[in-house]
Write a sequence for this structure.
């Protein structure tokens, strides 16, 4: 994938996280994106072109923004209730994504979504450990990750 496209994706995520669409924030976000690209430069092969995958990358970014908003609302509703009825816990999520880039992206998307946090990846890179604010239905949460973020990541970044 071209570094330009990845940089744009990083910038979109930056805007989504900060919620500020000023020129100064955009310039700072572009700097953070450039630094991030420098750190993953060995995993991004410039000779490959993926212009046909831009819709899948945009779809992943839109899914992230949707999940960010829905999760933030759900966490806010949990917090303002008079009785806090939560079942926090850590569960093991079996990974379908295999490359370091895909695993890192999935873990970061999970962490950036309110109410969930990626804790660790198993040494064999087959399991991601996730802390959730509400583990009352772990299977539904696993299904949501598999059918959401993980599927979109594979559509966008697999050859």
């Amino acid at each position: 994938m071209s570094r330009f496209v990845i940089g744009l994706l990083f910038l979109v995520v930056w805007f989504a996280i900060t919620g500020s669409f000023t020129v100064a924030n955009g310039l700072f976000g572009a700097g953070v994106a450039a630094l991030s690209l420098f750190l993953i430069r060995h995993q991004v092969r410039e000779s490959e072109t993926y212009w046909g995958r831009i819709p899948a990358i945009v779809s992943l970014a839109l899914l992230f923004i949707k999940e960010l908003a829905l999760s933030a609302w759900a966490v806010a509703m949990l917090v303002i209730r008079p009785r806090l009825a939560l079942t926090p816990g850590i569960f093991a999520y079996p990974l379908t994504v295999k490359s370091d880039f895909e695993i890192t992206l999935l873990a970061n998307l999970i962490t950036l979504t309110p109410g969930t946090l990626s804790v660790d990846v198993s040494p064999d890179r087959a399991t991601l450990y996730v802390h959730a604010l509400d583990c009352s239905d772990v299977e539904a949460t696993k299904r949501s990750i598999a059918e959401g973020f993980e599927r979109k990541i594979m559509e966008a970044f697999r050859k």
